[in-house]
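Progress narrative, Year 2. Work on ATP-dependent RNA helicase from Colwellia marinimaniae advanced from sequence curation to structure prediction during this period.
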Amino acid sequence: MSTNPTTSSLAFSSLSLKEELVKNLSSLGYEKMTPIQAKTLPELLKGKDVIGEAKTGSGKTAAFGLALLNKLDVKKFRIQSMVICPTRELADQVAKELRKLARGIHNIKILTLCGGTPFGPQIGSLEHGAHVIVGTPGRLEEHVIKGTLQLEHLNLLVLDEADRMLEMGFQAALDNIVGRTPLDRQTLLFSATFPDQIQSISESIMTDPVMVKIAASEDQSTISQMFFKVGSDEDRLDALRLLLLDKQVESTVIFCNTKKETQQVAESLHFDGFSVLALHGDLEQRDRDQTLLRFANKSASILVATDVAARGLDIDSLDLVINYHIARDSEVHVHRIGRTGRAGSKGLAYSLFSDKESYKVGLLEDYLDAVITPEPLPSLAVLANERPQAKMATIQIDGGKKQKVRPGDILGALTGDNGIKGSQVGKISVHDNKAYVAVAKGALKLALRKLAKGKMKGRTFNARHLTV
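Result:
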């Protein structure tokens, strides 16, 4: 399949997706497609069979999930789609991601059918009906044979991590399940590797499939991950300080799992002299917007955030992501660390974990198909290092688009007649009634004087250093 090299930067809004799906994607902060999404979704939405060869963490779940949800007719309360996964953990993760993607669709029912859980209650759930089934081969085959799972209305079938299912000896079960589905269904097969067995199974169950392969250079390989083991929560905060002082970078995002912890970590780092901001759901919208703006324009070097608050966080060059705790699920972990190392640049991700989180590390090892070995923490000697500080400061101007203020006017007012240098001016953001400009910290006083005395559009606007 020939693909335009710029497709990986396409926005989801460019696809022929249902409006409620696009709106929800935007609220989740999913603006641009990953390479696997950009290459498969246009074909999937045309109804074609697709084979996707890509590593876990490439965004394939959202790719087939969006195709599945776009095709779904919620008014018809019957099983229309089914995703088969090799393990219960992966099935749970896929179902969770599908529910997240489906938030804009009302009355949708997604049911998981996996081994290791009682059979009886699953029969009851199936009797109540569902739109989408996510399950493991053994349990799905059992339901199909007993007649409790009816697949005559199925129009989309997904085999996720097909290579692992074959490695685990599920070929016969897959044959049995697929043999009971309609021939005119759409079939999607995702696999991290492509052994001969996959070739033969695809030939027997797919119709003229489009083959999409994502090269290693297009996946998460630009991100270097390191894991550090800690004891108590007090040790965790000490470890965080050591890492921040050892690896001094321009911009770091620290992810916490709760709002309370986000605030506590930010306050503790601030007390210790770091240039830090907190971003969580308890902040007023205006404060959230200003926090994001100040971090994006380099007026703060560290942002401590929850996953929800960081949705839509679009920072061009994020040097480091630190997971204060391992994320609650592996998809979130990959999404978090994917914020660094963008546009082909090298990214760095640190994760702290304790004995209590060892099970999460185990899930991550399966998910990333990698062995995780803890690294030694930096020596205590780094505590003597200076705290990293932001290079810029933000000025708020009480005039914006409605007052006809443009970025060029602000730049001119700052740099004209013995003003500051153009190289000392950073990002300029103009809103309806306000504008914000980042200037080098050393030039802040002169910049404020220039704006106080100078004129834009024939008038003087109030300007102040934005600190809170």
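DSSP finds 16 helices and 17 strands in the chain. Confidence is low (pLDDT under 50) at residues 1-9, 216-220.
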